[in-house]
Write a structure and sequence with these properties.
The protein has about 70 residues and is mainly β. It contains no helices and five strands.
């Protein structure tokens, strides 16, 4: 299974990245979805992890804002 990822160009400066990090692709963390806001060059500005159970129910949401 490959990771599921979609990108949306917000404007000339930013893009939104939605990625499914499940099973072998969860980088050692529980299964979750990532919602990231990045510059068009890929520098992360905001990262939201949405943790789900096996039925797809949201069980936790945590945010990470990288330091500049």
């Amino acid at each position: 299974m490959e990771p599921y990822i979609k990108q949306y160009q917000i404007d000339d400066t930013y893009k939104a990245v939605i990625r499914r990090d499940f099973n072998d692709f969860s980088h050692g963390d529980a299964n979750h979805w990532n919602l990231e806001i990045q510059t068009v060059k890929g520098n992360q500005r905001y990262d939201l992890h949405i943790y789900v159970d096996n039925a797809g129910n949201i069980i936790e949401v945590s945010e990470y804002i990288p330091k500049k």
